[in-house]
Write a structure and sequence with these properties.
Blueprint (H helix, E strand, L loop, with lengths): L2 E2 L11 E2 L3 H17 L11 H5 L3 H4 L1 H24 L1 H20 L4 H12 L4 H12 L2 H32 L3 H21 L13 H24 L4 H21 L9 H4 L2 H29 L11 H29 L1 H21 L4 H27 L7 H28 L3 E3 L2 E3 L2 H24 L19
Antiparallel strand pairs: 1-2, 3-4
């Protein structure tokens, strides 16, 4: 029987029973993978949605966009709620909303209901930073590194493993079945978290910063809509520029307000510390590097050979891409040991350098199927290392009472990187200039240019990782790494 004391002292009135720490880690990782799976569940039938729903492509695109948008907005908010009211409680609420959204989408016969369901599914992404924060509160430091690495990696693992599941379901069943599968995964995760995961005893208290929530939501909505839909609307269109500039203006006012209240939604003074700031910037770059490959490789694998692609089916392409997710998962225990021995900063630098190396190979050779398989696995290894390092770096300097909000903000930064990659790389491929039977398709030069963007992002991440300063004495305010185990 193992017990861990809450950080900051051995107060027996707040003792937490930890039943089999490995099982707690596995359950939180499963919940994280289920939540991230929702990000890719519709990708296999994205091009068919206008026909299936009888709506224009511009309308059906919201079924993809709304999930990313809601996830980005709700993740830091749910992190703050977890700090205030209990991380397990909020995680269960998010999983409940995920299940509800999956059922709504499964029963939908119109695009409006599908968009509502997809938005509710997006709320589930907050489970990942909350899971990391729960581990920080209840695990011994010897187990913490590998646990954080596994849960953090689920941001990439869920999508990679979920893609072949979605592809199989859509090839053999009605598309609504995907959402019943999603509902089953979410319900199982909810039951397991309620049963296995101990309640965190750490509470920040205080009142929710409602004005901060509204300001962050409005500002992020403007920026993320402009970034995610810029290719469709035109980057110079009044709608895109208005949303982008308006969103940035709102975020500036929001930041000014957050610095002037006692209990802000996001403590920007902590966020501005060198370690947190550079880690969050590196997170944007690594998110971009990750998603650049996830945009390029599926199109390259599925494009017909006569158009310069590799001519695989959706299922074949999904199976080629899936091992990258397994590599991320397999690196979790390795990353935990490396982080414990060398620290998180070298781990992040090494992970981003490995990703950069994989892109160098991808740019230098004429890609065949086995090249894509190997390169994508190497990307997965680098992502596994980098995603393990980021929460550890954040938690070196963030006070225990702000764990959930800080991890939520870091997850938001990764999402900003992936959203930017989808827009930039998607735009590069869309403007590729080749044609197949009169239909525009990406050219070889477009694929190579897109991969160069991924390489640039990985190099930027490496430089930022090397620039992360050491935490100064007194800066950590007792970060909540557990002090001991009975």
């Amino acid at each position: 029987m193992r017990f861990s004391f809450p950080p900051g002292g051995q107060d027996r009135s707040r003792l937490t029973y930890v039943p089999r720490p490995g099982l707690v880690i596995a359950v939180l990782a499963f919940a994280g993978m289920g939540a991230s799976f929702m990000q890719t569940i519709l990708l296999p039938i994205q091009s068919e949605l206008p026909l299936l729903l009888g709506e224009s492509r511009d309308v059906t695109a919201w079924a993809i966009t709304v999930t990313l948008l809601v996830a980005a907005i709700c993740t830091p908010i749910s992190g703050r709620l977890g700090d205030m009211y209990g991380k397990k409680t909020v995680a269960l609420a998010l999983l409940g909303l995920l299940v509800l959204g999956s059922v709504v989408a499964a029963l939908s016969s119109s695009v409006v209901l599908l968009i509502v369901g997809r938005g509710l599914q997006g709320m589930g992404m907050g489970v990942i930073p909350l899971g990391i924060s729960i581990l920080r509160d209840v695990l011994h430091k010897e187990r913490l590194g590998s646990g954080i690495a596994m849960v953090s990696a689920t941001l990439g693992v869920g999508g990679a493993l979920g893609l072949p599941i979605s592809a199989f379901v859509t090839e053999h069943y009605d598309w609504h079945v995907m959402f019943w599968v999603a509902a089953g995964i979410g319900l199982l995760a909810l039951v397991l978290v309620a049963w296995i995961v101990p309640a965190s005893t750490m509470r920040a208290g205080g009142k929710l910063d409602v004005v901060g929530v509204i300001g962050l939501a409005v500002g992020l909505t403007g920026v993320l809509l402009a970034v995610s839909r810029g290719n469709d609307w035109g980057w110079g269109s009044p709608r895109t520029l208005g949303l982008l500039l308006g969103g940035l203006a709102v975020l500036l006012v929001w930041g000014w307000y957050e610095l002037r209240i006692d209990a802000p939604l996001v403590d920007l003074r902590v966020t501005a510390r060198g370690t947190v700031l550079f880690t969050n910037l590196a997170s944007i770059a690594m998110g971009f590097a990750l998603f650049a490959s996830q945009v390029v490789f599926p199109q390259l694998l599925e494009l017909p050979a006569e158009a310069g692609g590799l001519g695989l089916s959706l299922m074949q392409a999904s199976l080629i891409l899936m091992p990258a997710g397994l590599a991320m998962l397999a690196m979790s225990p390795v990353a935990g040991r490396l982080e414990h021995r060398f620290g998180p900063k070298p781990l992040l630098a090494a992970g981003s350098a490995i990703i950069a190396l994989s892109y160098v190979i991808a740019v230098a050779v004429d890609l065949e199927v086995w090249h894509v398989l190997v390169v994508n696995i190497v990307v997965g290894i680098g992502i596994g290392l980098g995603f393990a390092a980021m929460p550890a770096l954040i938690m070196q300097v963030v006070p225990a009472r702000e764990t959930g909000a800080a991890n939520g903000l870091n997850t938001l930064m990764r999402s900003l990187g992936t959203t930017s990659a989808a827009a930039v790389v998607g735009g590069v491929l869309a403007a590729g200039g080749a044609e197949l039977d009169g239909v525009p398709v990406p050219s070889d030069d477009a694929f190579r240019t897109a991969l160069l963007f991924g390489l640039l992002a990985a190099l930027v991440c490496t430089v930022l990782a090397l620039l992360i300063p050491r935490p100064r004495l007194g800066e950590d305010e007792r970060p909540s790494l557990p002090d001991g185990v009975l």
